[in-house]
Specification:
32% helix; 3-stranded mixed sheet
C-alpha cells in the first residue's frame, strides 16, 4: 500500500519534466522502488521500533547518469522525500539526516544500477565505539576505547549505569536511553 503511493508520486514526476527524457529507459520510479526495498531489507530493530539506512548511494551507468544529472538536485530531493514518506508509513526511524546521492559507474551498462546504503554517517564515531549492555538489573554504556570518547548527559564516561532519559553521545550523535 505505501509503495503504491510512492510509485504514484514518482510517476507524476516522470509524467512531467522527466517523461520525454526517459522514454524506454531507466525510470526514476525504478530507483525509488529499489530505495524502499533497500530500507525494508536493511531495517534493524531499534529501541522504539525499526531503524533504517539514512544514506543511499545510487551508482548509474554513464548514459543514465548524464540524463539524471541534467535535472540537477530535483531527482535526489524527490527520492529523499519519498524515502522519508515510506519510513513514516512503515514506522521506520532514521539515525541522522537522509541523503540520496547519484554516482557515475563506468562499469555498469545502460538501465542497470547498484545501490549502497548506510545506517549512520558520523565521522566521529568509531566502528566499535561503545556498547550498551545489561548486567543483572542494570543497563550500562561502556566506551570501547574510542578515539573521541563517549559521554552521558555531557559528561565523559568509560562505563556508566544508565537511567531512563540519559542522553548518550557518540561523536555528534545523541541517543536517548528509554528502557522498554
Amino acid at each position: 500500500m505505501g509503495l503504491q503511493q510512492f510509485e504514484r508520486r514518482l510517476e507524476r514526476l516522470v509524467e512531467g519534466a522527466f517523461a520525454k527524457a526517459f522514454r524506454g529507459q531507466l525510470q526514476p520510479v525504478e530507483l525509488g522502488r529499489r530505495l524502499t526495498r533497500e530500507m525494508d531489507l536493511r531495517r534493524a530493530v531499534g529501541i522504539h521500533g525499526f531503524i533504517v539506512p539514512n544514506r543511499f548511494n545510487l551508482f548509474l551507468a554513464p548514459q543514465d547518469f548524464e540524463r539524471f544529472e541534467a535535472f540537477g538536485d530535483s531527482l535526489p530531493r524527490e527520492l529523499v522525500s519519498a524515502v522519508r514518506e515510506h519510513a513514516g508509513r512503515e514506522g521506520y526511524q532514521f539515525v541522522g539526516p537522509v541523503h540520496v546521492d547519484l554516482h557515475l559507474d563506468p562499469d555498469l551498462s545502460v538501465s542497470t544500477f547498484a545501490i549502497e546504503s548506510e545506517l549512520l554517517d558520523d565521522p566521529n564515531v568509531s566502528r566499535r565505539h561503545a556498547q550498551v549492555r545489561r548486567e543483572g538489573d542494570a543497563v550500562l554504556v561502556v566506551d570501547l576505547g574510542s578515539t573521541n570518547g563517549t559521554r552521558v548527559n555531557g559528561v565523559p564516561v568509560r562505563e556508566h549505569r544508565l537511567v531512563p532519559g540519559d542522553v548518550i553521545s557518540v561523536g555528534t550523535t545523541a541517543l536517548r536511553f528509554e528502557p522498554s
